[in-house]
TrEMBL record:
It comes from Mytilus galloprovincialis. It comes from the Eukaryota. This is Uncharacterized protein. CDD domains: RNase_HI_RT_DIRS1. InterPro entries: DNA/RNA_pol_sf, Hepadnavirus_pol/RT. SUPFAM superfamilies: DNA/RNA polymerases.
Length: 253
């Protein structure tokens, strides 16, 4: 079964978002009106709910309907909504009830403080974190672990339509960020916007579960460039890796 938004409704929401994107502040009444439109859209666009929750929280920072709310913190979110609605065809299929464990579809990701890797049904990627990310004070192990998860979703997410994908991760902070769909750290939010955008476009949802000391041998060998070990663990893997996106493409401002 499928759910959809009428074209005129999509265009109307686009107009409203564009209007708010150009403003630095608005009244609580105006913000609640925007929330009404976005909440309606989220009946169909499930991954967008985490971004609506941030606007709801923002609306509680003032008491009276005529009081003004600053919009600076949510402008990147509005840009993401605007881009999504322009690219989306207006239709979403109902998600499967069952959650698919990433390991069951041979999907693995891992990272070290300097490099990362990912594997999906004999396709794979690996890369080094560029210096500008390593030297950023906002970069943390949560960022490193989230990075290849988002990379996998962008590269292979078009094959996961209607699925609820459960990533197992040994970093509790990363799991918490995926569950909430948000982070206070700007660099992590850039990754989460990209993740939300692609999961909404391709009609899947990402879940995460914390498993201490998870055995993740295939992705671990890729992230550490242990290629002989990787070939032994995945003898049928493609000879050539899938090209990675540049950080500027993977992180949505």
């Amino acid at each position: 079964m499928e759910a959809y938004l009428l074209l005129e409704k999509v265009l109307r929401i686009q107009e409203i978002i564009e209007y708010f994107s150009k403003r630095n502040s608005c009244t609580k009444r105006e913000l609640l009106s925007l929330l009404g439109h976005l909440n309606f859209a989220c009946r169909v666009i499930v991954p967008g709910r985490s971004f609506v929750s941030h606007l709801i929280k923002l609306s509680t920072t003032v008491k009276k309907l005529h009081h003004y709310v600053h919009l600076k913190s949510c402008k990147p979110d509005l840009v993401m909504w605007s881009k999504f609605l322009k690219d989306w065809n207006g239709v979403s299929f109902f998600l499967n009830d069952n959650i698919t464990n990433a390991a069951d579809i041979h999907l693995f990701t891992d990272a070290t403080p300097s490099s990362f890797g990912g594997f999906y049904q004999n396709e794979w990627f690996q890369g080094d974190f560029p210096y500008e990310l390593l030297s950023c004070e906002q970069t943390s192990m949560a960022f490193f672990e989230l990075y290849p998860i988002v990379m996998a979703c962008v590269l292979w997410g078009d094959r996961w339509k209607r699925k609820r994908i459960l990533f197992n991760c040994d970093n509790l902070a990363t799991v918490d960020i995926i569950k909430k769909g948000r982070s206070k750290i700007p660099s992590l939010m850039k990754l989460m916007r990209k993740l939300t955008y692609h999961s909404a476009i391709n009609n899947f949802v990402v879940h995460a579960k914390h498993i201490p000391g998870i055995k993740n041998c295939i992705a671990d060998s890729l992230s550490r460039y242990q290629m002989m070990k990787f070939r032994a663990l995945a003898p049928h893997a493609n000879a050539i890796p899938t090209p990675c996106l540049h950080p500027s493409e993977l992180m949505m401002v």
